[in-house]
Design goal:
Layout: E1 10-14, H1 23-35, E2 42-47, E3 55-60, E4 65-72, E5 78-85, E6 90-97, H2 104-116, E7 122-127, E8 143-144, H3 152-165, E9 167-168, H4 170-174, E10 193-194, E11 197-202
Parallel strand pairs: 6-7
Antiparallel strand pairs: 1-3, 2-3, 4-5, 5-6, 7-11, 8-10, 9-11
Helix pairs in contact: 2-3
Length: 203
């Protein structure tokens, strides 16, 4: 309810882990709960067959969108939906949960699947587990009190993805110099911070 009461058109979900031994029964109850709640009805689309990782997208039930095509990856790290509005316009939404360990194939697969969906406006969002900026740690606006940026090679792969598909970080477009962080360690002892959760959209 804390999520759906925002009543946004789309909600991207990450690390949903729906593939346990009770998965089928739980998913049916979950779908029903999203469709029937006091705040806003949503349809749940997801890719999650394991007890780890998995991603999903909630689509406001009142919106007249038709799903044309869906794409995902074997690691269940991203789900892409090609949707069509009642006016005929098409666009792509995608929920992303970036790998923690080095995995160049994740970015290659993501770009390949996005390209296969055609030239349409794109909205991606989620936990990328890397910063948007790949600059050195001392000048990187997306991290603070760190010895190095998290998963540097992934930030570099991400830069290439954005360059090839003409994507931008809307947060940085609006606030190019603002410091804000989405990862803050639990407790008061560690002071490291980073912004690893964000959206990418067609420029």
């Amino acid at each position: 309810y804390g999520i759906v009461q925002l009543a946004t058109d789309f909600i991207f979900l990450g690390d949903i882990r729906l593939g346990n031994r009770h998965g089928g029964k739980q998913v049916a109850a979950l779908k029903s709960q999203f469709l029937n709640n006091p705040y806003c009805a949503y349809k749940l689309e997801y890719i999650s067959t394991q007890s780890k990782r998995g991603v999903g997208i909630l689509i406001k039930n009142s919106l007249a969108f038709t799903e044309i095509q869906r794409e995902g990856d074997e690691g269940e790290n991203f789900l892409l939906l090609l949707l069509q509005k009642s006016t005929g316009e098409r666009f792509v939404v995608g929920s992303v949960y970036g790998p923690n360990a080095h995995d160049r194939d994740f970015f290659i697969n993501l770009e390949t699947k996005l390209t296969a969906l055609g030239r349409h406006p794109i909205v991606l969002g989620g936990d990328w587990n890397c910063t948007f900026s790949s600059e050195e740690v001392n000048t990187n606006i997306d991290c603070l009190y760190m010895e190095d940026i998290p998963n540097r090679r992934h930030s570099e792969y991400l830069s290439t993805l954005c360059e090839n598909l003409i994507l931008c970080d809307p947060y940085r477009a609006l606030w190019p110099l603002r410091r804000d962080y989405t990862y803050v360690p639990h407790g008061n002892l560690r002071k490291n911070r980073s912004r690893i959760d964000y959206f990418l959209i067609s420029s």
